[in-house]
Structures are given as structure tokens and as C-alpha cells.
Amino acid sequence: MSAPKSEDSTMKSLDDRAATPAGNQNDPGPTAASADHATASADHAAAFADHAIASADRSAASEDHSTASADRHAARMRESLDTEMLGVKDGVLRMGNYVEEQILAALDAIVHRDAVLAAEVIASDGRINEVQRAVTALVAMTIATQAPVARDLRFLLALDRVTYELERMGDHAGSVAKQARKLAGVTSMVTYDELTPMAELAARQVRDVVMALVDIDETRAREVAARDDEIDRLYHQVFDDVLKEMRTDPAKVDPGTRILFAAHYLERIGDRVTNIAEDVVFLATGEVEDLNP
Q1: Per-residue CA distances from 91 to 77, 80, 244 (Å)
Q2: How far apart are alpha carbons 188 and 247 in whole angstroms?
Q3: How many structural domains does the chain have?
Q4: Phi, psi torsion values for 249, nearest 5 degrees
Q5: What is the pTM (predicted TM-score) of this model?
Q6: Which of 15, 41, 242, 274 qualifies as a cystine partner to 292, CB 3.0-4.6 A?
Q7: CATH number assigned to the domain comprising residue 266
């Protein structure tokens, strides 16, 4: 009777194992978990990429802002440099105008042997010196604060040199006036017909070369330099005429000497004008050239 019971027990165990599933139906298993992890990683990577793109956009915007700020700063610096250079140009133009007036006034003092006018011309030389000092100081300040380079720097340095030339021209005009003062009261006078056109041409040369400088006009500068030959011709004519009279009349030696000195100073003004013209040619071409060999 024991054997049938054992058989029944064995059959029940087999039935129980058949009824039990191979695994838990709610357990996703290792393959599904890996898929979920990969999806989460992809989402994280996408979020990181979005963050990187946003950061790049912010960096680009910041860079654009910085560039715009730099552009505005450069524009302000350029405007400031232009303003200060305009002040230097204005000073040079005023000096040129003063020198031109001095030359013509000194000539008038000689023609009329006007000691009072001659003294005024001599005293007026101070205003030329004052403008030169102001321009030189402005050039130095502009170079120190604006740090100009290349063409702007060369132009400023050229303007500074020109103020020296103009200041010396003012001195020469004052020297002409000094000769006029010594001629006051002279009764036996020499003939000096060419002195008037010589002085008028010298005054015109000063005006034209300063304008050529401000405009950096090479053509005009060369034309001005070429006219210096006419000043030289007039000077030699004055010299020959006055010397001839001095030889024939001893009373004319002293006034003749004064006229010769005046003509010499006017001729020196012409030479200094040529120096400025050479500066203009250099600014325009970059070449150092002797315009009055």
C-alpha cells in the first residue's frame, strides 16, 4: 500500500513544478533595464548639448558686446585724436597768417621809412612765438595721450617742425623791420624796385605752403618750391642795383646796406618755405627730396 502513495506524491510534485512559471512575470529582466539606462543617458546627453549650445550663444553675444564696446572706444579715440590734430593745424595756420602779415608790414615800414610801424612789427613777433609754444605743447600732449602711429604721427611731427620754420620766418620779418627803423629819416636813398615784389612773393609763398601742408598737397608744394627761383632772381637784382649805387655815391652806402640786409632776410624766408614744401612732399610720398638743389 506504500507504493501507490509515493507515486501520488511524485505526480503532485511534477504538477506543482509545471504550474510554477519559469520566472517572475513582473521582473523586466536585464535587457529591458539596459535599454532604460541607455535612454536616460541619451536624454542626459541631449540636455548637456542644449546647455553647451546655450553657453556658446551667450559667449557669442558677450563677444559681440565686447567687440561693439571696443569699436565705440576706438571711435572715441579717433574722434579725440582728430580734434587735437585740428587744433594743431589751426595753430599752424594762425602762425602762417601772422608771418604773412609781418612780412607785408615790414615792407610797408621800409617803403615809408616808418619807425613807429617798424617797432610794431618787431613787437608783434611775440605773438608768433606764443602760438609756436602752444602748438608744440599740444603736439607733445597729443602724442603722449593718443599714441598716434604711422601717418598721423609723421604728420604731427612735421607740423611741429613747421612751427619752428615759421617762427624763424617771423624773426626774419622782424629783422627786415629793424632795417626799416634804421632808415627812418634817411634823405639819400637807394633804388630798390625789386624789393617790393620780392616781399610780396615771399608773403604769398608762406600762405601757399602752409595750405599745401594742411592739405598734404604734393603738387602745390612743388609749385611753391619752384617759385623760390623767382625770389632768388629778385634778390640778385636788388643786390646788383643797390651795389651799383653804393659804388657811385658814398652817401648811399649806409641805406644801401640796410636794403641789402632786408633783401637777404626775405631770401631766407623763401628758403625756409622750400624746407616746408619738402616736408609736404615727404608726407605725401614717403620720399626725402631736395626741391631746391
Answers
A1: 21, 17, 43
A2: 14
A3: 1
A4: -140, 105
A5: 0.75
A6: 274
A7: 1.20.58.220
